[in-house]
Amino acid sequence: MDDLFSDAVKALLTDHCTPAVVRAIEAGQPRAALWQQLEAAGFADALVPESAGGSGLTLADVYPVLELCGSYAVPLPLGETLLARGLLAHAGVSAPKGSVVFGTGQLASDGRLHCAQVRCGTQADWVLVSCGGVCRLLPVACAQMQVAGFCLDAQISWPQAAWDAAQAVPGTHDLVTLQAALYAAQLAGALMAVFSRTLQYANDRQQFGKPIGKFQAIQHQLSVMSEHAFAARMAAQLGLSAAGPVPDRLRVAMAKARTSEAALEVAGLSHAIHGAIGFTREFDLQLYTRRLHAWRQAAGSESYWHDVLGQALLDSPEPLSLDLMRTLTDAVD
Amino acid sequence: MSQLDSLNPSAIPAQDEALRQEVRIFLTEAMRGVPAHVRARSWMGYDPAFSRELGRRGWLGITFAPAYGGAGRSAFARYVLVEEFLNFGAPVGSHWIADRQSGPLLLKYGTEAQKQRYLPPICRGEAFYCIGMSEPGAGSDLASVRTRALPNESGWLLNGQKIWTTNAHNCHFMIALVRTRGEAGDRQKGLSQVIVDLSLPGVTVRPIVDQSGDSHFCEVFFENVQLGPDALVGDEGGGWDQVTAELAFERSGPERLFSSIALFDEWLAYVRTPQGRTPQAQRLAGKILSQLAPLRAMSVAITEKLTRGESPVVEAALVKDLGTGVEQLIPATIADDLFSRDAANVPAELLNTLNYTTQVAPSYSLRGGTRDILLGMIARGLGLR
Question: Shortest CB distance from B265 goes to which of A309, A319, A329?
């Protein structure tokens, strides 16, 4: 089931989410054509129960799709919308039309609700905002917005009246953990993309009369990249292996921390091996390495999640760290 | 690359996981009061009586067929056992190599008579093995071994020298990679494996003291050692392929993640006290755990491949290199944590464990293949060689 699903996503992204399309959307060109393709295929409804018109998949089932959002540098909030619609469906709220991203808001003294950095906010129709322990859905249409950080991310604010009038989502929701699970999976995908592109480059690029991949120093750098990419992929898969609709916060802590650490290592090594060409806008590598840095920063860097995991470990009464390690890694029924 | 793509989270089957409770009850009692700097030795700790007790309980050679004294269980059963042994710091060095590597090698390549003769004592914790690979002139370049076993009327006549042989001074048998044909220039061709009874005349074993003060490495000399005709293990000339397969067992296990775990847990016990807990230590605890946990999942995934009869050589090299990196990070970062604060109240036992682990840590990334050899193997797996 999930293999068929992710194969369909992969086929569509291969055709319609090319590097040229990624560049165009990053440059501010309209997103509607790509979004309509994704929407028509129903990918964003993967977690919505079948009874409500979705695919009824689990978080673990959608891991390959979220990884693909990373490996294809998808410039639209497909992963965000997929997770948001799952959350809304389980909270009994019907999802609005269009894409949804996540924000952490503060009501400021200027009477406005501010979200300092909304990931993929420039490409969203709605923001699911958490403020003071409450979650509400706000339309981007009535917001003020400016790019903040990564080219697709935005600082967004609304008048307080918009917050007061917004559709409430019942229950308490840990949006940061949900996003961290997503960006860990996207990092795993981007790490693989960067690794395989660098491997290919090392086989193609000739210097001193042979491919640079024949030099032991380059081979060992590629081996180290592969170690990080595969450890990060394992961690990201575990981050989404939850029994229910909500990811496990500690597994996500491990996943986001490990993928973020790998992002820094792999981005650095890939640029080292590519030399000057990898630093140009024209060459595709930057589409992925800029994302490695952006997603490392998104929803908590490695140290943020080290703190979370460390607190759990120190608060645990078990004398063996193995026991927490087992709860983080053992398969979930 | 495709080999590596298939490392996905795997579940330890319930019947194997069930062993954990049983072995943990035993270890909790057996290891009570053993100080952390002793537990830190774990599979470098030698205790024949302990090994015999494990054998009596059916925990050695658990994957071997019942006909040879084993329990016919899966690689997962052994994984659960050894994970517990290592995390409790149990002194499992005496039987470690026999249970992990030499037994499975004999099962795969031995004759029926060899299996009947050698495997039951391994399962009883009565026969201890070492691996004769490195020589003074053949370390990372293993194919240049010069020790020779030449056929004669009584079997094989063994001459030469092995070095860096773990635990040889406490072992009964060595399975050695030797040249049975040709010259050093023939490299991988003409190599074979022979089983050597270390009590035979002409065998001399000398322990080598390492920088921690322990002696687990040895040098072993063979001077006209007469082996029987049945000393050959597997095919004559097939030694190189057999050794390569054996290294998948050697490199994939949880002993490549947990070498510094006694120090980590001892440090955590201190950091959990009111005077030991700091925000910096909390962050470091999370960092180490976030690196160890995915590796544990990868090690379990490799075990799953072993249960399917695969020989995941490249995956094992990848996990070993990453694992030893974390094992070496643990003493380095814990030292920085303890000595970036007023260390007046750090317990002496924690300092002793840190000292031992710091001194032994360089061995992690040289035993079972140096870091550069492993990175080269991964590069080969990636198609770069």
Answer: A319
Helices (H), B308-370: 313-338, 348-364
Residue A258: pLDDT over 90 = yes
DSSP B142-162: GGG---EEEEETTEEEEEEEE
Q: Which of B140, B251, B384, B385 to mutate to test the interface with A (most CBs of A within 10 A)?
A: B384
Arithmetic mean of pLDDT, A234-257: 96
Mutating which of B140, B256, B290, B350 best tests the A interface, going by the most A Cβ atoms within 10 A? B290
Sketch out chain B's domains with CATH numbers. 9-127 (1.10.540.10), 131-237 (2.40.110.10), 253-381 (1.20.140.10)
- Regarding pTM above 0.90, the answer is yes
Round to whole Å and give the CA distance between A118 and A261: 22
Is A108 within 8 Å of chain B by CB? no
Name which of B375, B314, B368, B292 is nearest B6 in CA terms.
Answer: B314
Inter-chain touch B294–A231, beta carbons under 8 Å: yes
One-letter amino acid of A98: G
Are A231 and B295 within 8 A, CB to CB?
A: yes
| Domains identified in chain A and CATH numbers | 2-169 (1.10.540.10), 175-329 (1.20.140.10)
Measured from the Cβ of residue A61, the count of other Cβ atoms closer than 10 Å reads: 18
N- to C-terminal Cα separation, chain A: 17
Asked if A325 lies within 8 A of B293 by C-beta distance, the reply is yes
Cα B312 from Cα B314, distance rounded (Å): 6
Closest by Cβ to A319, choosing from B9, B269, B383: B269
Phi-psi region of A150 (alpha: psi -120 to 50; beta: other; left: phi over 0): beta
* Interchain CB contact of A276 with B (< 8 Å): no
Q: Are strands B203-208 and B217-227 parallel, antiparallel or unpaired?
A: antiparallel
Beta bridge pairs of residue B42: none
Confidence at residue B185, expressed as pLDDT on a 0 to 100 scale? 87
With CA atoms as reference, the chain A residue closest to B5 would be: A230
Type of residue found at A182? L
Partner-chain residue, chosen from B264, B318, B374, that has the shortest CB–CB distance to A230: B318
Asked if pLDDT for residue A150 goes beyond 80, the answer is: yes
Helix (H, G, I), strand (E, B) or coil at B218: strand
B191: helix, strand or coil? strand
Question: Which residue of B289, B291, B350, B372 to mutate against A (max A Cβ within 10 Å)?
Answer: B289
The strand pairing partners of B197, in sequence order, are B173
* Average pLDDT for B93-110: 96
- CB proximity list for A178: less than 8 A, separation 6 or greater: A83, A87, A102, A246, A247
Chain B residue with CA closest to A212: the answer is B384
**pLDDT tens for residues A174-219?**
999 999 999 999 999 999 999 999 999 999 999 999 999 999 999 9
